Amino acid sequence: MFQERLQSICDSIDGALAVSLVDADGITVESIGDGPGLDLEALGAELLAQTRVISRDHRELAMGEVRQLSVTTDLYTVLVSALTGSYSLLLVLEAKGSSYGKARFELRRAKLQLESDLA
């Protein structure tokens, strides 16, 4: 069921290498695409753990929940976008030649489409 939605996200963003649906424990539910040397399961688990720590700190500072986190390296830009309390999307973009703004827009759009499927 999620394969088609994830493929649509990946296809709509220039430079998208992979997208994964990840649960709150960092376990990959479904993935589309890959990149050379990408371990999507490990990446999802690590970034979700970091997002939880940042969210906890932001709650303590009364700043609210983290809805989206991005990390840019020499090779990739990785975005984690919260869908529901239990699921997030992990999107991996090429560092060069990808559309960061379009990626953020498509992740917000995907949230609206996937929320009902995940309820």
Overall geometry: globular
The strands making up the biggest β-sheet line up spatially as 2-1-5-4-3
What is the domain total for the residues? 1
Low-confidence stretches: none
CATH architecture: 2-Layer Sandwich
**Distance linking N and C termini:** 14 Å
Question: Any idea what the CATH superfamily is called?
Answer: Dynein light chain 2a, cytoplasmic
Structural class: alpha+beta
Number of helices: 3
Average pLDDT score: 86
| Helix percentage range | 40-55%
- CATH topology category name: Beta-Lactamase
Major pleated sheet: 5 strands, antiparallel
Order of helices and strands: HEEHEEEH
- Radius of gyration, CA atoms, in whole angstroms: 13 Å
Count of β-strands: 5
Question: What's the CATH C level?
Answer: Alpha Beta
What portion of the residues fall into strands of 2 or more residues? 25-35%
Task: Give a short summary of the structure.
With 119 residues, the chain is of the alpha+beta class. It has helices at 2-11, 40-60, 100-118, and strands at 16-23, 28-33, 68-72, 76-82, 87-94.
